[in-house]
Every structure is written in structure tokens, then in C-alpha cells.
Design brief:
The complex is a heterodimer of chains A (161) and B (398). Chain A is 23% helix and 25% strand. Chain A has 161 residues and is of the alpha+beta class. Chain A has a five-stranded antiparallel beta sheet, with helices on one face. Chain A is elongated. The two termini of chain A are 28 Å apart. Chain B is α+β, with helices and mostly antiparallel strands. In chain B, strand 1, helix 1 and strand 2 form a beta-alpha-beta unit. The N and C termini of chain B lie far apart (61 Å). The chains are: A alpha+beta (161), B alpha+beta (398). The interface between A and B is large, with 73 and 83 residues. Strand 2 of chain A pairs antiparallel with strand 11 of chain B.
């Protein structure tokens, strides 16, 4: 059985490498994601109900142009960019993002990641951003991942619980 | 021929800015890499938010990477943010730089009097830039000589407004990236017609007036320089709500205490549904057979983001009485161990800190909560920090 996803190795990564994916979160995507999040009432994220994520009138009453994508979903989108790039044998050590502006339903986004440090094997540091068609960056952040090396292709070991 | 130098005058680092992800060494490495690609940058100025940090010695890093690292500060005033260079003990004695509403005219005047110089930061941004305050409140620019008109974190429209203000009022302009992350450094620069090796040199160069803002790449030999923008030719960007401001009251006893807030049952089914909602195809999360035969954990595991689907109690409440809306402002995830099907993950939350700052949408209060996740074996599998911002907003209709 062939591997469906390309595996990235530390040996092949250089500072300045950049990769991206297009994202286009629609109202339907948001509803699916929120169905997964069991959202309701005053949820864990502190957002006061789901109205701003699904209802135009509620969104506009809160100063938003139209319904927005939940922050957790934006985080999930940028995280997927990282996991797609690093491959199944990579490991996310940490990911840290700031939500600078709302992501609106229907926004056409670029998820972008850029290697900012690849000196100390097996760790790679990345800068992350979501960029919309207006040139704004609603989300910016960083990630630290660990990649396998060609001499240790099974990947970095993590504690087994 | 005049010797020129190129500096990024507006950089934030993890050493002192709460919203930065770039380390000082990371910035140095970035400069080194950019130079290899023909970009020219001599140094940068750390202008941390509301803090002047001089305990850390960057001379070793500066020498190692051949980069000039200087210090300034970004303070918050009643007309927005202001960058101060050549920060002296005399300046720090006059102001509580942690205050989010310093009197701007005094900041500009005292900076000058105490051997430094002040610059209006990202002048075209709503609320935290000079343009709106001049336009809506008619504030005087008598003490203002320089504004940051090319800011790497501002939109073209916002930068255009800055240049229009400068042209109308005869202000000088500088460029800075406003980098919070490594890859943003150098996005905008200031070109000086002089060597700058120290804060004293920088202040002298700014007082001379012999400088100009440029975009990344324009400092390269033979590079073409684009015309500086005017807002008249650029569509405005998406807006945010208007902001008011109340005194912030809170229950500080709620800060620091960790409490149990709930649990999450992880199953093959829930992992499958989560992956389907995100169009996730990584076989580590979706293919049991592949994960068992080839994965590093001997079996399928859950994407760490599945923790964000947990339905938890809100945890300790500092009872902050400010604003009428909350939005997510930031998230941080650290992973320690894999999350497996049939795991029961328990969550424990504490309010880590509460702080105030101003931004495009005005005054804001941030609550940072840290949540620790442990499995049924008592092993911590991950930790998250979520930052919520409290604001007052105006509805767009009616």
C-alpha cells in the first residue's frame, strides 16, 4: 500500500522554505465544524453563543460585516496546513496563534507557512498566517514541529501513554 | 558618496511583547538568511509594547550575526501608539510606560528634551494612529515631526492615509515592519543617509531628517522603488466595531487557581467525524491499518486539535466588568503525548493573566486561560492557552 501523503524529512528543509494551501470556509463548513464542537450556550471558548458564526443579523449586531469563522476552526485550518506539510511521521510540539481580525464566511484565504529556523535537528520553526483576499492577515502565529531524518525515518519518538 | 544604512525601526520580540512570536535570535537568523539572498539590512530596533527592557544583553548575538540591535519602546497615548528611540532614564522617570493613555504631546516633547525622539506609529490605523485623531478631534501636530507611514502590519489603505497626513502637514516619514514574527522583519525599512551603530547615532539620524521609508527589496542594488501610496487610490479594508472605554474592575482572586472543568471521551468515531469536518486526510488520524503498520505510535491517534471540541465548564471567572462582547484573540497548543481512541481526557483550567491594551478597535481587555489535559493514566497529553478579548462594539445596522 503506497503512502497517501508525502513525508517531509528534516534533512530536506531549509530556512526560508515556504508552503501554502488555499482555504475557502463556507457557511456549510462552519456548520459541520460547529456540529463537531458541540457548541452551545456559554461554551469553553467564552464565545457567547453561536449566533455570530451562523446568523447574519446577529453578526451585524455585534459589529461584524457577516457571520464569521470560529477561532478554533481557523486554528484547525492552519494546523492542517502544517500536518499536511510535515507528513504523518512528523509531530507538532507547539502551535501559537493570534486572531487579529475576523475571518468571514466565504473569505478566500491563503494558509501560509514559512520556515524560520531549521538548525537543530529534529526541530523546525515555522511562521504561520492566514491571508484574505484584501491582503489582511486575520491570523498569525508560529509552530514548532519535529521531523524524522533520513537516518531515523521512523520519526521522533513521543512518550507512549 | 553618502554611506547609507537600513534599519527596521519597529520590531517586537518574545522577550517583552505579549503578542510576539519572534525571538531576537530568530530575527538575527532571518537577517542573515535575507542577506544571502541579496537583501540589505543593517539592524533593527526592538520596540516592545509598553515595556523598556534593558536587562538583556544582545551584544553577543549582534556580534555573532553582524546585526546592529537597538532598543526603543512603543507606548500608548491618547492619540494612538508612539515609538520612542533613545529612551533615557529621564524619559522613564516622567512616564509610567505601562499606561495605555499617556498624554501624547508630553511624550513627544519629553522624548526630545531627554535626548531621544518620538515617532507616531502606524499613523493611518484606526484608533491607534494619528490620522483619525487629527481628522476627527483636530489634535495639534505641533510637537510631532515624524510619523511611521510605511508599516509592515498596516494595509495599503492605512499606509496611504499616513502618507496623505504627512504630505498635508509637512511631516517626515519612516518605515518599520511592526514584526511580531520572524518572517515579517524587514518588510518595511528606513533608509538613512548615515551610518547608524548606536541609539545615539539613530537619534541623530532621525533628527537630521535625512531618511526615507522603503519596502523590502527596494534597498537591493538596482531595485526599482514604487511610488508611496495615497489612500485616495486604495479601497478601504474591512472594518471592526467602534470602541468605547470604561474603567476595568475585576476579581483578582480568580487569577492563578486551577480547577477541573470537564472531560472529553475520545473514540474512533469522534476522531473520524472531526477529520471529516476538516477534510483531514493524514493517515495517522484516518487510516487504522496504516497507523498500526507505519505510524510512530503503533496505532491511530487523534489530531491534537480535537481537544478544542471538548465541552467544558468556563472555569474561574475574574468577573471583568468591561465591554459587551468577547472574541477569541489567541490560541496556543503544546503537545506532550498522543491522544488515542478510548482515552478519557480530563481538563483543568486556570486564569493565567488579565491585561489591557489598545488596538485598531480601541481599548481592549484580554483574559488568558491555560488548560491542562491529562488522560486516564494521569499523563499530561497537551496544554492550551486561549486568550479572549473583551471589547465594546457598535452594531452595523441601526
Amino acid at each position: 500500500m503506497s503512502d497517501p501523503i508525502e513525508q517531509r524529512y528534516f534533512d530536506d528543509v531549509e530556512l526560508g522554505d515556504e508552503f501554502e494551501e488555499a482555504q475557502h470556509p463556507t457557511a456549510e463548513h462552519v456548520r459541520q465544524f460547529m456540529g463537531q464542537s458541540e457548541r452551545g450556550g456559554r461554551d469553553r471558548s467564552g464565545d457567547q453563543g453561536s449566533g455570530r458564526f451562523t446568523d447574519t443579523a446577529t453578526a451585524r449586531s455585534q459589529g461584524l460585516e457577516r457571520p464569521i469563522v470560529p477561532g478554533n476552526m481557523s486554528l484547525a485550518m492552519i494546523t492542517r496546513l502544517v500536518t499536511d506539510w510535515m507528513g504523518p511521521l512528523g509531530h507538532i510540539v507547539e502551535i501559537d496563534v493570534s486572531y487579529r481580525r475576523p475571518v468571514l464566511h466565504g473569505d478566500r484565504l491563503r494558509s501560509v507557512a514559512l520556515v524560520t529556523d531549521a538548525e537543530t535537528s529534529p526541530r523546525v520553526h515555522l511562521d504561520l498566517s492566514l491571508e484574505n483576499e484584501r491582503g489582511e492577515r486575520p491570523l498569525q502565529g508560529t509552530a514548532v514541529v519535529e521531523l524524522p531524518t533520513r537516518s531515523s525515518p521512523s520519526g521522533p519518538l513521543r512518550p507512549h501513554a | 558618496m553618502t554611506e547609507q544604512s537600513y534599519f527596521d525601526l519597529h520590531v517586537h520580540s518574545t522577550d517583552a511583547s505579549d503578542d510576539a512570536g519572534g525571538t531576537v535570535e530568530g530575527y538575527c537568523k532571518w537577517v542573515e538568511a535575507r542577506r544571502k539572498n541579496g537583501y540589505h539590512i543593517d539592524g533593527f530596533v526592538l520596540t516592545e509594547h509598553r515595556r523598556y527592557v534593558d536587562e538583556v544583553d544582545y551584544s553577543a548575538l549582534a556580534a555573532q550575526y553582524g546585526v546592529t540591535i537597538l532598543r526603543g519602546i512603543e507606548v500608548e497615548t491618547d492619540v494612538g501608539h508612539v515609538l520612542v528611540y533613545g529612551v533615557s532614564a529621564g524619559f522613564l522617570e516622567r512616564f509610567d510606560v505601562g499606561d495605555v493613555s499617556l498624554p501624547y504631546a508630553d511624550v513627544f516633547r519629553v522624548a526630545e528634551e531627554t535626548g531621544g525622539i518620538a515617532v507616531g506609529a502606524h499613523a493611518g490605523r484606526p484608533r491607534i494612529g494619528l490620522v483619525e485623531h487629527v481628522g476627527e478631534r483636530g489634535v495639534s501636530l505641533e510637537t510631532v515631526g515624524i510619523i511611521e507611514a510605511l508599516n509592515g502590519g498596516s494595509s495599503d489603505y492605512e499606509n496611504g492615509r499616513s502618507f496623505d497626513l504627512a504630505e498635508t502637514h509637512g511631516l517626515l516619514t519612516v518605515g518599520g515592519s511592526d514584526a511580531h514574527f520572524v518572517s515579517a522583519l524587514g518588510r518595511c525599512l528606513t533608509e538613512f543617509d548615515a551610518r547608524v551603530n548606536s541609539s545615539e547615532d539613530l537619534v541623530a539620524a532621525l533628527r537630521s531628517g535625512a531618511f526615507r521609508p522603503i519596502r523590502v527589496g527596494e534597498e537591493r542594488d538596482g531595485a526599482e522603488r514604487r511610488a508611496l501610496p495615497s489612500a485616495a487610490h486604495i479601497p478601504s479594508t474591512s472594518g471592526q466595531g467602534n470602541l468605547g472605554g470604561d474603567m476595568v474592575e475585576m476579581d483578582e482572586s480568580a487569577i492563578g487557581e486551577e480547577v477541573y472543568v470537564g472531560s472529553l471521551e475520545v473514540t474512533l468515531h469522534s476522531i473520524g467525524e472531526y477529520c471529516e469536518a476538516l477534510d483531514e486526510t493524514n493517515p495517522l488520524y484516518t487510516d487504522v491499518d496504516w497507523a498500526e503498520r507505519k505510524g510512530p505510535y503503533g496505532g491511530l491517534v487523534a489530531p491534537p486539535g480535537i481537544l478544542n471540541t471538548a465541552r467544558l465548564q468556563p472555569g474561574p471567572d475574574p468577573q471583568i466588568r468591561f465591554g459587551d462582547q468577547q472574541f477569541m484573540a489567541g490560541s496556543r497548543l503544546e503537545t506532550f503525548a498522543p491522544i488515542r481512541p478510548a482515552d478519557t481526557i480530563e481538563a483543568f483550567t486556570q486564569v493565567k493573566e488579565v491585561y489591557e491594551k489598545t488596538g485598531r478597535s480601541g481599548r481592549m481587555v484580554f483574559i488568558v486561560r491555560r488548560t491542562r489535559y491529562a488522560n486516564q493514566h494521569g499523563v499530561d497529553v497537551a496544554a492550551t492557552e486561549h486568550s479572549m478579548v473583551l471589547r465594546q462594539v457598535k452594531a452595523l445596522d441601526g
